[in-house]
Recover the amino acids of this structure.
């Protein structure tokens, strides 16, 4: 096949979605990946403006978190500390806002609300932030109720720095994959696996949710970022377990926790001879997670047919032509 024909075939395969050309990876959550618009809309950035300092001044900071109900955000307990470094059950900044459903912080996607109350766990580095208004149209995270196991695979989202030496926070959410390396009473160790072995949470990723992804799109929060070495690094950071705190979380959030409605039972009656009746409509195929294939089967199938036809034409043309002569230190991540 000559060069011109090869380029034409490759172009059509790309358009059909059958070939994906290599791109340049975007590294952040240190050495993670950039989140596309519309993904992981439950992820939250908490922005604290005017936090009191021990010297009588003010500073600004931020944390990450996850929406667990219309009015409550799950984050790390150390995101709300007083001037003596004690966890407190109240907002500490002059103003604390949450941005939900916005992967690109420079866009107008998603929603913004203000934190009006805080509740601190007495047994773990976990806090709950109450919002001044409900967040609608975004599916919250579900709480894990089962003990994590060593080797479990999870995903992390956050708005932290891209490198421990950076001073400017990124304007887009980052993500990476991790595996559970150890399980303690209230903490689990988590080490980066993808896109790199040194993918790791960084400063301002504190409170970011580690979660599992089910085939139906459900995200279940397993832990929140607590502490770890300076990023990026290989090896484990520590996350606060959610299953051991789930009962306390439920007692605070109460009825605001979203419980998915149960599916309606299908009718036992079949269709009538005339085509009527209450036969259940066919179910849509379950959505795949990011490790699966695209759900655009129709477009791909059409692409296969088109590509096969083109290959046949090019092969026939070829037959008619004459042949021509590849340092480790623990600290909170707020």
């Amino acid at each position: 096949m000559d060069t011109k024909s090869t380029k034409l075939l490759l172009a059509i395969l790309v358009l059909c979605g059958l070939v994906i050309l290599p791109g340049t990876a975007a590294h952040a959550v240190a050495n993670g990946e950039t989140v596309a618009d519309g993904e992981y809309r439950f992820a939250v950035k908490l922005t604290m403006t005017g936090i009191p300092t021990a010297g009588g001044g003010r500073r600004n900071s931020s944390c990450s978190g996850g929406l667990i109900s219309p009015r409550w955000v799950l984050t790390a307990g150390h995101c709300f500390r007083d001037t003596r470094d004690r966890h407190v059950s109240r907002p500490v900044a002059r103003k604390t806002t949450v941005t939900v459903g916005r992967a690109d912080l420079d866009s107008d996607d998603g929603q913004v609300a203000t934190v009006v109350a805080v509740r601190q766990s007495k047994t773990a580095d976990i806090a709950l932030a109450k919002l001044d208004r409900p967040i609608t149209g975004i599916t919250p995270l579900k709480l894990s109720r089962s003990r994590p196991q060593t080797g479990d695979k999870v995903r992390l989202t956050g708005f932290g720095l891209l490198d421990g030496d950076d001073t400017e926070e990124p304007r887009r959410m980052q993500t990476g994959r991790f595996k559970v390396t150890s399980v303690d009473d209230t903490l689990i160790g988590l080490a980066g696996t993808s896109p790199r072995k040194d993918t790791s949470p960084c400063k301002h990723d504190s409170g970011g949710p580690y979660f599992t992804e089910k085939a139906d799109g459900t995200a279940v929060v397993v832990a929140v970022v607590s502490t770890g070495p300076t990023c990026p690094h290989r090896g484990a950071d520590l996350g606060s377990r959610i299953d051991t705190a789930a009962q306390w979380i439920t007692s605070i959030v109460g009825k605001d926790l979203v419980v998915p409605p149960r599916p309606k039972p299908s009718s036992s009656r079949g269709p009538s001879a005339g085509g009527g009746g209450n036969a259940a409509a066919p179910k849509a195929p379950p959505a795949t997670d990011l490790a699966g294939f695209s759900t655009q089967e129709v477009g791909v199938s059409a692409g296969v047919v088109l590509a096969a036809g083109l290959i046949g034409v090019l092969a026939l043309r070829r037959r008619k032509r004459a042949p021509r002569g590849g340092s480790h230190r623990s600290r909170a991540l707020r």
Remarks:
- Residues 33-256 form a domain with the Thrombin, subunit H fold (CATH 2.40.10.120).
- The CA atoms of residues 51 and 92 lie 6 Å apart.
- The radius of gyration is 25 Å.
